[in-house]
Design brief:
The complex is a heterodimer. By secondary structure, chain A is of the alpha/beta class. Chain A has 23 helices and 16 strands. In chain B, strand 1 and strand 2 form a beta hairpin. Classes of the chains: A alpha/beta, B mainly alpha.
């Protein structure tokens, strides 16, 4: 059912460039498939034994490059897999032992990652916390491996009989196939809808919560997945090197995984894998000649990459590739008209108090606003307007009082749950996901924030967007730039993009903190028009605004805050007649 | 019993020494210095080399000044370019640590040891305890007190608190934040150098010795929170845990116990400060 207000049609698709997700992995796999025909058998078996490293580097690229989790202790997971496999094969016949090793190693790594994630991710946790915790864990695991000699064989590790076939070619292709499957599997996830969400978590893990995504859960899942893949790589490494040794579990090996990933290119799974293979092949060639200096050189290269080349060796491919990408059309289609909104108050707050230290930012006896109306929130600087908006979006966790938002008590609910009540917030300074394309930003804004199974695998090629939002996007040149990074937009365009993202989700309650700051009056009018239209269709719109003329032109009702207290509440004419308000503004203005 | 308590105090002292430099750098600059362990390692090497040339105490002073100056240089060359890119500062210092380890490792395989300047046991409540360890405990107590006095009562402390709470505002009221950053990074490294040199007689001196100090230092720093003084209670909790477990079990179990207790304490602290 198409929207009845359909003024123009989007039948002609707006083409969006998506980088072909399979390009990098497939190129790498073709090269690797050909390697046995190009290299001698010694080098082929060396290369095969580096496949586990390549997997670990790819898994780190998923965790770090795509999700922004700088994990510095991946070797703990790798080592768990290696030791579990070695113990399994040592204790049981080969086949069941290996299966048990894979299962136990991956489960243990997943559980460890889950615990670390519970400790290290959260609204207030700094991005560095996971780095520190993973580092400490890797150091602790190395000590454990060295200490419990009876289980781990101490310094000597656990030697293994050869499980893989003796034929070097066959054993190469076994590793190749396992590597290919894992690489392509991870590549599917990065291109899926979840992949878009993962990237938005990396860009701004706070902002994405206001669109209803439980960022902590996304980070946790990606981190646990990365740990399981790394543990699996550890199992494979035990098979190739025929030993599970303590030098695979500690912080030195963690350093190498980070180094391979950074040098290859953290932003591409295939590039990270390539980095691992290349660095190890070169080390292998140079071993015995000047290995000490090679390690120093590697450390230097690593620092240079960190400082100047965040894309690592992948950098030229990214630059060239952005010109070679084949267009993949993504349709923007008009959304079906949103369901009818309820009537009456969208929000009722009683005795709301928010203090920051000794400063009382908000102390309101009773405040409410209704569905179907544009309500303006005005007041001098420091009156508590932004505090109220932050409170309504769930960002203030230590406020007191009673607050019913869309029929639900909202105090104590995390931000993403408040957003799922149908409450969306526009920030004062535009906050968009800068490394995502404009189209992906619109997608993040418009999507249903619940993650389903299909979101792990499927990349939606159709984007339903309300028509008024679409026309706003079109008028301000966003549709012409759907493929560009949002970070490359001008400030004003970012404002419009964020407005479109917030309105795209057809929310019941829309909170806007000075959405028109720094805009020309024509642009203000355009946004005002959309807000009025939105309220007509039943939503509750609350807007913070300084320009009284603009307020007069769009708002049905005005709330006036001063020093944290509500001093007036009524229609435009009531409020402009109000004594206290006149004193406040005239007293200030002259 | 007395020995257990004294050893726990010594553990706390080691944590305070390892964390002091980290806390200064993290508190003021929000930079997590992953090369801190290597700075301590360099301090230990300076003390080792200085042994043949000068008295032990002078070696510690030289280690502090030398590593501190190195810190200022590194801040200028590396950290300043990565201002506020927190993950990149982690990576850069992590890479720097790797580079220092490899450089030292190329010339010295490690496993040297250094004698303490005095090591006669002292009798305390009937138990013998190493005099040097007692000295380390006293030194850590003095260091902590000095940090407290500086942060609370001096104009330098006011600057420090201003920069910690809001660097932009601090810049606005005329504080030269860039210089504060260079100095605090230098101070962090100076403290690391002194700590490494002081602790050198207690450990085997090797290029990889920094890692273990870094773990304790990090856990203390994270638990400590944003002020410099939080390291007192944080080190107390973790050092106490380590001391108890080292007595009833062994050193490895103790370090695992410290990690677990740190995680639990972090979680409790997190849930206490609201949701």
């Amino acid at each position: 059912m198409k929207n009845a207000l359909n003024g123009w049609s989007f039948a002609s698709a707006v083409p969006i460039l998506n980088s072909p997700w399979w390009r990098d992995p497939v190129c790498l796999l073709i090269i690797l498939a050909a390697c046995p025909f190009l290299l001698d058998s010694y080098r082929v078996s060396s290369l095969a034994s580096y496949f586990p490293y390549a997997m670990a580097a790819s898994a780190l690229a998923l965790v770090w490059g795509y999700c922004g989790i700088l994990a510095l202790g991946q070797a703990a997971f790798f080592g768990l897999g290696a030791y579990a496999a070695a113990k399994g094969i040592e204790s049981y016949p080969v086949a069941p032992g290996l299966v048990a090793g894979i299962f136990i190693g991956c489960a243990a790594a997943g559980a460890l990652a889950w615990i670390l994630a519970r400790v290290s991710f959260g609204v207030r946790a700094g991005a560095f916390l996971i780095s520190v915790m993973t580092f400490c864990t890797a150091v602790a695991f190395e000590q454990l491996a060295l200490k419990f000699t009876s289980v781990t064989g101490g310094q000597n590790g656990i030697p293994l009989d050869r499980v893989l076939p003796k034929d070097p070619l066959l054993s190469y292709y076994i590793g190749f196939v396992v590597f290919a499957m894992l690489l392509l599997g991870m590549a599917v996830i990065t291109r899926s809808n979840l992949g878009r969400v993962i990237a938005s978590v990396r860009d701004d893990s706070m902002r994405i919560r206001f669109f209803g995504t439980n960022a902590e859960l996304v980070q946790r899942r990606v981190f646990v997945l990365g740990a399981i893949v790394t543990a699996f790589a550890g199992v494979l490494d035990a098979l190739y090197s025929q030993i599970a040794a303590p030098d695979r579990i500690g912080f030195a090996f963690s350093t190498f995984i980070v180094l391979w990933c950074a040098i290859g290119g953290r932003n591409s799974l295939a590039a990270a894998a390539f980095g691992a293979l290349l660095v190890n092949m070169v080390s292998n060639e140079l071993s015995g000649i000047f290995l000490d200096y090679w390690q120093i050189l590697l450390a230097l290269i690593f620092i240079i990459v960190v400082m100047f080349l965040p894309d690592g060796l992948y950098w030229p491919i990214r630059v060239l590739g952005s010109r070679l990408n084949a267009p993949r059309p993504l349709q923007l289609e008009p959304a079906v008209a949103s369901s009818s909104h309820p009537e009456g108050p969208a929000f009722v707050g009683e005795k709301l108090i928010q203090r920051f230290g000794s400063f009382t930012a908000l102390d309101v006896d009773r405040v409410s606003f209704d569905f179907g109306h544009v309500t303006a929130l005005i007041g001098p600087n420091g009156a508590g307007k932004s505090t109220l908006i932050a409170f309504l979006s769930g960002a203030l966790s230590d406020a007191h009082g009673k607050a019913i938002l869309v029929g639900k008590e909202m105090l104590g609910i995390p931000i993403w749950k408040v957003a799922r009540l149908g409450v969306k917030r526009k920030f004062q300074n535009p906050r968009v996901f800068e490394s995502l394309s404009v189209a992906d930003n619109l997608f993040i804004g418009a999507r249903d924030p619940k993650l389903r199974m299909r979101d792990w695998l499927v990349r939606d090629q159709c984007l339903p967007i309300p028509e008024d939002v679409m026309s706003l996007a079109r008028q301000h040149g966003l549709l012409a730039r759907l493929n560009d990074d949002a970070g490359s937009l001008a400030h004003g365009q970012k404002q419009f993009l964020e407005v479109c993202m917030v309105l795209g989700s057809q929310s019941q309650v829309v909170l806007l903190d000075e959405p028109t700051a720094g805009m020309e009056s024509a642009d203000r009018a355009a946004i005002g028009q959309v807000l009025v239209y939105l309220a007509r269709s039943g939503a509750a719109v609350l807007i913070v605004e300084h320009d009284f003329d603009f307020v007069r032109s769009i708002a049905d009702r005005i709330l006036v805050l001063d020093q944290g207290a509500l001093i007036a509440d009524g229609t435009v004419s009531e409020v402009s007649e109000d004594r206290k308000v006149r004193d406040l503004y005239l007293g200030e203005g002259g | 019993m007395t020995i257990t308590i004294l050893n726990s105090f010594f553990g706390v002292a080691v944590l305070i020494l390892s964390a002091a430099g980290l806390v200064v750098v993290f508190g003021l600059m929000k930079v997590v210095n992953f090369a801190h362990g290597e700075a301590m390692m360099l301090g230990a090497y300076v003390a080792l080399i200085a042994r043949d040339w000068m008295p032990f105490w002078l070696g510690i002073v030289v280690a502090g000044i030398g590593i501190g100056v190195l810190g200022v240089v590194i801040e200028r060359l590396l950290i300043r370019r990565l201002y506020r890119r927190i993950l990149d500062t982690i990576l850069a210092t992590w890479g720097l640590g790797l580079l220092i380890r490899e450089l030292i490792g190329a010339f010295d395989p490690g496993y040297s040891s250094l004698d303490a300047p005095f090591d006669a046991p002292v009798s305390i409540l009937g138990s013998d305890f190493s005099a040097y360890r007692l000295f380390i405990i006293a030194f850590a107590a003095v260091l902590l007190t000095a940090m407290w006095v500086i942060e609370r009562f001096t104009s330098l402390g006011k600057t420090v608190r201003a920069v910690i709470s809001d660097p932009d505002l601090a810049r606005g009221i005329g504080i030269n934040v860039d210089r504060v950053y260079a100095l605090s990074f230098g101070t962090g490294w100076l403290l690391a150098g002194v700590a490494g040199a002081l602790l050198a007689p207690m450990v085997t001196i090797a290029p990889t010795m920094g890692g273990n100090f870094l773990v304790g230092g990090f856990l203390t720093t994270i638990l400590a929170g944003p002020t410099l003084l939080g390291i007192g209670p944080a080190a107390g909790l973790l050092g106490g845990t380590g001391g108890i477990f080292a007595t009833i079990a062994d050193a490895t179990t103790a370090s695992i116990a410290v990690l677990v207790v740190a995680m639990i304490a972090m979680k409790i602290k997190d849930s206490r400060s609201g949701r």
